[in-house]
Amino acid sequence: MGLLWVLGNLTLSNVTWVDEATATSQQLAYINDAGNAIIKVDNTTTVANGSMRNSIRITTQDLYDYGSIWVMDAVHLPYGCSVWPAFWAKGPLWPNDGEIDIVEGINLMNQNQMALHTLGECVHQTPPDQKSPSGNLNCSTGTGCTVRESSPNSFGAGFAAAGGGVWATQFDISGIYIWFWSRPDVPSSFSVGNTSIDISQWGPPSASYPVTSQCNLTQFFTSQQLVIDIALCGDWAGVPSIYSSSCKGTCYLSNVVGPGSPTYDDAYFEIKYVRTYTVSAGLPIPPIRHLGQCGDDAHAGYCRPGHEVVRRRREPPRGHHRASSLAALVWALWWW
Ligand SMILES: *[C@@H]1O[C@H](CO)[C@@H](O)[C@H](O)[C@H]1NC(C)=O
Ligand SMILES: *[C@@H]1O[C@H](CO)[C@@H](O)[C@H](O)[C@H]1NC(C)=O
Ligand SMILES: *[C@@H]1O[C@H](CO)[C@@H](O)[C@H](O)[C@H]1NC(C)=O
Ligand SMILES: *[C@@H]1O[C@H](CO)[C@@H](O)[C@H](O)[C@H]1NC(C)=O
Ligand SMILES: *[C@@H]1O[C@H](CO)[C@@H](O)[C@H](O)[C@H]1NC(C)=O
């Protein structure tokens, strides 16, 4: 399947997002000996004061509609001073079509931060069974409506030391739900080769954004593309007051400028797979619930649907993900 390689710079950060040919020749995107996809910041080049460092941003050409679940299994996430990775989703027109931040963190953070961003008025009403605490509740502010992961080892060195973990995001007309499991807790239903997942085994999500009278989510989210990128500095990691809370010097001069190693030796994703699942054809699509119906719900506007078994739409071609080409990287990343 196709990926879009974003060139240039969209987040005011100190990177040049390179094209596929450059990423391949500079070994910024490849399949390692374990068969996992590596996506990384350049750590082999000395960058001059005033220049940018090469990094990657890739986006699916496919759009995933309501009724889909996206799963990422990673063993390492990029981290370190100035490093700002994200695994997120957006509609074709950003920011108008909504943004879902599934994995995002900066600098030496050790907890993942999830968020929704909406162009119009949407306030997160945290349901009682959300596992992690909500932060900012107004989804149309610059920060978005955030939830900080409370399970340990969801970001940074701790994530890698625990063997990584799995995120699952349900994009549903009843709401948007994100689960996280550190490696020891990953449900066995995610085992290799299993073509279906049963969300009734998962327990409450880490972040739960139900449609409520305060937020008609379907108004703000079109079908979504998945994005993986690594920014450096920029308008979160590089804000001086935020940067200096855990890192020394200044974001750009103390990191981006100069030799890439050892500063960026941990600035890489190592991903086993990103799989997308869709509600299996035989199952009824849950009815669209509008604000009135959600408000009528006994549980304070909380209207998640029943549990559904979803099935992977298509098998990936066998063996492809162990080869070392960019096409193989794409297959390793996006099985759908
Ligand atoms: C980097 O360049 C800026 C702008 O030209 C200059 O102000 C600064 O002193 C330079 N810093 C270093 C460490 O070379
Ligand atoms: C949410 O934030 C937006 C943008 O700053 C603002 O216009 C709106 O009034 C806020 N809504 C609430 C309920 O605070
Ligand atoms: C496959 O997934 C289903 C649904 O979650 C589960 O019941 C089953 O045990 C899994 N099979 C394996 C081999 O893990
Ligand atoms: C919620 O949003 C959907 C999609 O834009 C729209 O069709 C529906 O009328 C909205 N419901 C309410 C109560 O505003
Ligand atoms: C760049 O980082 C990788 C680990 O991500 C490391 O194996 C490699 O030695 C580093 N490159 C250089 C030139 O140090």
Automatic annotation (TrEMBL):
An example molecular function term from Gene Ontology annotations: hydrolase activity, hydrolyzing O-glycosyl compounds
Keywords: Glycosidase, Hydrolase, Signal
Signal peptide residue numbers: 1-18
Keyword Hydrolase listed: yes
Alphabetical GO biological process terms: glucan catabolic process
Gene3D superfamilies according to UniProt: 2.60.120.200
Domain GH16 residue range list: 10-245
Alphabetized PANTHER family for the sequence: GLYCOSIDASE C21B10.07-RELATED, GLYCOSYL HYDROLASE-RELATED
Name this protein carries in UniProt: Putative glycosidase C21B10.07
Organism, scientific name: Grifola frondosa (Maitake)
